[in-house]
Amino acid sequence: MATNDAFDTMDIRVAYRDVDMQGQMHNAAYLTLAEQALVDFWSQRPTVESEPAFAMKRMECVFHKPLHYDDIARLRVEIDKIGMQTVGFAVLIERDGTLAARVEIVWTAYDRDKGEEARLPEALRDWLYDFLP
């Protein structure tokens, strides 16, 4: 896997373990790759005091064109929406500039001590706004 200059994009080569007998990438592999791209993106966030914990609330994938064994895919993380307690991500998976899949992921912030939903810290919200399309 190669990471581009921008930390919101990464390139991957479709591995043999991720394809079926027709050479197409398994559906679940798209979700795994999207989560990996999101973890890489999230690791670049600014440090905020008393950051809440985050849990996935929803994940959805829309398939456009299949990826195949040995394809190079570019994954790009975008911020889809920012709520008071949630953040929505869109991970676009492309091959040769053509959209292969769009994975939408929604995370909810939780207070680490109380286990209840919590507000997104302002510093984190400000950072996320920079990635709105």
Low-confidence stretches: 1-5
How many beta strands in the DSSP annotation? 6
* Elements, N to C (H/E): EEHEEEEH
Largest sheet, in brief, is: 6 strands, antiparallel
Strand content: 35-45%
What overall geometry do the principal axes of the alpha carbons give?
elongated
What portion of residues is helical?
10-25%
Alpha-carbon distance between the two ends: 25 Å
Task: Give the rounded overall mean pLDDT.
Answer: 91
Structural class: alpha+beta
Major beta sheet, strand line-up = 1-2-4-5-6-3
Give structural notes.
By secondary structure, the protein is of the alpha+beta class. Helices cover 18% and strands 39% of the residues. The protein contains 2 helices and 6 strands. It has helices at residues 27-42, 122-129; strands at 2-3, 9-13, 53-63, 72-82, 86-95, 98-110. The protein has a 6-stranded antiparallel sheet with strand order 1-2-4-5-6-3. A hairpin with a 5-residue loop joins strand 1 and strand 2 (9-13). The longest helix has 16 residues, at 27-42. The protein is elongated and about 50 Å long. The protein starts with a strand and ends with a helix. Residues 1-5 have low confidence and may be disordered.
